[in-house]
Each structure stands twice: as structure tokens, then as C-alpha cells.
Amino acid sequence: MTISLVGFIGAAQAAPDINHLKGSIVLKGYGATNIFDGIKDTRFLDLAYVKWAWNNLKSPTDVAAELAKYEPDYKAFEQAAKAEFKPRWKVKYMSIPDNQWTKAGRELRAQVDREVFLQSPDQDAIARYHDLSLLELAWDGKISGKAPWHPEDWEAFERFYCEKHTRVLGFVMDGCAIPNWHRPDPGAWKKVGYERLKREGRLEFLQSN
User: Distances in Å between the alpha carbon of 59 and those of 64, 67, 91, 139, 179?
Assistant: First the structure.
């Protein structure tokens, strides 16, 4: 089956690499493969889109709006894969030792997801939702904890952590630029803590060399 994708404005898009589609981002329970074990380029299905999203989505509102475009198609894909997976797993697990269930379940889920993906007419939407969800997890896990709350601190933050961020996200970064994807409702204590550290001069990226 030939995968045909609609071109994305601002990104020269290639067909998603489904060999890296290792399960649902959202699904829980047996067969779930939504384990956040690090970010690398091989986890993504469409690097051209990922680079576009990194460079063009400037806020959590932008990210949420972009995800919302593709969520119905992704959820339909996920439900179809879940429906296909469950009866096949019921047959398979009985012949597998208990201590191998997790590994076997993930492998079967990945196989089923790839099969269902190939049958879907919404492959571009599925790939984009999958990839942007992973990219958002990377931002939340690797960047947000030290990212500043004040725009005037942002350039110093980017510069100070450039090497570290490049090691994690070099496949999407051009230069040191980091989008500000802080969630709008982080909890007042985070902002208060940042203000205190800044006031006390304990933010590394604002300290003079």
C-alpha cells in the first residue's frame, strides 16, 4: 500500500516511518507502549513536521490548538487498534509465561498499531498527533523545570542550556532557540519559587561568569 500524505505548509513532508510507531501515546493497560524513556529522532514518525512544530508553535495555546486538529483522527485510530489488539492478546497471552507478558504485549501492540495505521486514511493526522504529543512530553520533561517565567530572562536561559538542550533535541533545534510552552495553569508555587530564586541570585543562567 502506498502512503499518500497531504503536504504541510512550511515543511517538506515525507511519508511517516511506521517502523517507529511503537504504540499509542494515550492507551493504558496491557499492550500500552506510552513509556517515556527518553527522546531521540527515531521515536518520531515525521521529523519535518516535528521541526515545523518546534519552530512555529510559540505557546501552550498554540500546541493545544494544533493537537486539537488531529485528536479525533488519532483517537479513532487508537480505538481501532485497541479493538484489534484485545482479542488477539487474549489468544496470545495464554501461551506466554507471566513474566514475559509486558514485553510480548508491547510487541503485539506495536504490530497491531502499524497494521491499523496502514489501513487508515488519516495517516498524516495520526503521525502529527503522535509526534507533537512526544515533543510536548520532551519539553515538559527536559526543559520546563528550569525555564524562566519572565521573557527578559529567556535569551540567557537559551544560551546557558544550549549544549544540554541540543544533546536532547538537536534533531529539531536550529541554534539555541527554545519555544515557551509553559502551561497556563502551572500552580502559583512554581512562579513564587522562581521569583525567590531570582531574587536570591540562585538561577544559574542569570549568574555572570
Answer: 9, 13, 45, 12, 7
